[in-house]
Amino acid sequence: MPKGKIIEDFVSQEGLRIFNDGSYTYLHSGNGSYSSIDIPICDPSLLLDYLWRVHDDLCGSDHFPIVRKNLFTSAQQRVPRWKLDKADWSLFENLFQAELQSKMFEKSNFNI
């Protein structure tokens, strides 16, 4: 079975999507021909969240870099939220006190 068919079957069976729109991602150094051999695959839920393109500079390789950009703000830019009411505060306090005690003893070693 040809490798392309194996990949096609896998993508289809797993319900995945391919980002590549047919853009060339590879330059054959021997004959100067272009092809689209790099296949960025993703879950369908991510397909509309990212912009995909091929960089126009080979950067010293025979494969063009693939640039993927998130169209929405990243999770790191969100304001953090915590479920403070679900914390085990007595356990936290006990662990904190034990850690604090151990740190105090580590720093109190005298060099004689």
Describe this structure in words.
By secondary structure, the chain is an alpha+beta fold. The chain has a domain at 3-73. 28% of the residues lie in helices and 16% in strands. The chain has two helices and six strands. It has helices spanning 3-14, 89-107; strands at 17-18, 26-27, 34-35, 41-42, 50-54, 66-70.
Uncertain segments: none
Order of helices and strands: HEEEEEEH
Strands of the widest sheet, in order across it, are 1-4
Average pLDDT, rounded to a whole number, is 84
Helix content: 25-40%
Radius of gyration: 26 Å
- Measured between the Cα atoms of the first and last residue, the distance is 75 Å
Sheet-strand content, in percent, reads 15-25%
How would you describe the shape?
A: elongated
Number of strands: 6
What structural class do helix, strand and pairing data support? alpha+beta
Total of DSSP H or I helical runs spanning 4+ residues = 2
- Largest sheet geometry: 2 strands, antiparallel
Compact summary:
The protein is α+β, with helices and mostly antiparallel strands. It has helices at residues 3-14, 89-107; strands spanning 17-18, 26-27, 34-35, 41-42, 50-54, 66-70.
